[in-house]
């Protein structure tokens, strides 16, 4: 456990993909906290390892190249492929996007709140994890954007609802130059439309307002 801006940091969770681990390594070194590979933070169109496909190296295999990885950590959530869906880029069996991904973020958000009650967690993931922000804050995804290397800071004060202290829609304060091919990303209604067969969600009533709730569930003070 260490501190950043006066707050104790208890754990660093990272998506299992190589580029995310690489991005998180300097933070791990700076704070002296190992990286915990969390499958719940997997990319959209997640292609998890199964008995039929071995897509990603295991934490033990990653450890040979990244000794800061905590090989004893067990993921809070493990995605599963959705029958009939394959990743459009790799062809592997994948989780249906965006509907099943949003359901995963909803489940993962509740796991985070229970498991890391009252603790401050740093997470490294992907642009689509703006859905995790919406799941915690219980707001619409309509206006949320995640810039490349953007940083969201969420906080819960006095057992109240989660609040966005810092938005990750802009990175100009800590990124000197962006590639012309990158841009702040966010969900749109097309990601839930099933008309062309590439997306999923509308048939189950999953849309941009999926996380909007009438009331928020209280919890202990925490930072994410």
Give the SSE map.
Elements: E1 2-4, E2 7-9, E3 11-14, H1 18-31, E4 35-37, H2 59-63, H3 99-115, E5 121-124, H4 130-137, E6 153-156, E7 162-166, E8 222-223
Parallel strand pairs: 3-4, 3-5
Antiparallel strand pairs: 1-2, 6-7, 6-8
Give me the secondary-structure category: alpha/beta
Shape field? globular
Radius of gyration: 17 Å
End-to-end Cα distance: 15 Å
E-strand count: 8
**Helices and strands, in N-to-C order?**
EEEHEHHEHEEE
The fraction of residues assigned to DSSP E strands is 5-15%
Which regions are unreliable across 5 or more consecutive residues at pLDDT < 50?
none
Instruction: Give the % helix.
Output: 10-25%
Give the overall pLDDT as a whole number: 92
Task: Please summarize the sheet with the most strands.
Answer: 3 strands, parallel
Description:
- This protein is of the alpha/beta class.
- It is 20% helix and 12% strand.
- It has helices at residues 18-31, 59-63, 99-115, 130-137; strands at residues 2-4, 7-9, 11-14, 35-37, 121-124, 153-156, 162-166, 222-223.
- Strands 4-3-5 form a three-stranded parallel beta sheet, covered by helices on one side.
- Strand 3, helix 1 (18-31) and strand 4 (35-37) form a beta-alpha-beta unit.
- Helix 3 (99-115) crosses helix 4 (130-137).
- The longest helix has 17 residues, at 99-115.
- The radius of gyration is 17 Å and the shape is globular.
- The model has no long low-confidence stretch (mean pLDDT 92).
Features:
224 residues, alpha/beta, three-stranded parallel beta sheet, 8 strands, 12% strand
């Amino acid at each position: 456990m260490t501190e950043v801006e006066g707050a104790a940091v208890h754990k660093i969770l990272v998506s299992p993909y190589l580029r995310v681990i690489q991005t998180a390594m300097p933070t791990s070194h700076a704070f002296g906290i190992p990286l915990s590979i969390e499958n719940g933070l997997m990319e959209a169109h997640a292609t998890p390892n199964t008995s039929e496909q071995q897509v990603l190296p295991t934490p033990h295999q990653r450890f040979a190249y990244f000794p800061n990885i905590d090989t004893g950590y067990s993921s809070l959530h493990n995605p599963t492929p959705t029958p009939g869906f394959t990743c459009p880029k790799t062809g592997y069996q994948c989780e249906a996007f965006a509907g099943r991904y949003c359901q995963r973020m909803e489940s993962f958000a509740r796991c985070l709140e229970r498991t890391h009650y009252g603790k401050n967690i740093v997470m490294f993931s992907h642009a689509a994890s703006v859905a995790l922000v919406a799941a915690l804050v219980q707001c619409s995804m309509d206006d949320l954007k995640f810039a490349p290397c953007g940083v969201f800071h969420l906080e819960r004060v006095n057992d109240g609802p989660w609040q966005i202290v810092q938005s990750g829609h802009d990175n100009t304060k800590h990124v000197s130059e962006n590639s012309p091919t990158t841009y702040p990303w966010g969900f749109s209604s097309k990601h839930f439309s099933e008309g062309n067969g590439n997306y999923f969600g509308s048939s189950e009533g999953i849309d941009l307002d999926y996380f909007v709730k009438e009331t928020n569930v209280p919890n202990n003070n925490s930072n994410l």
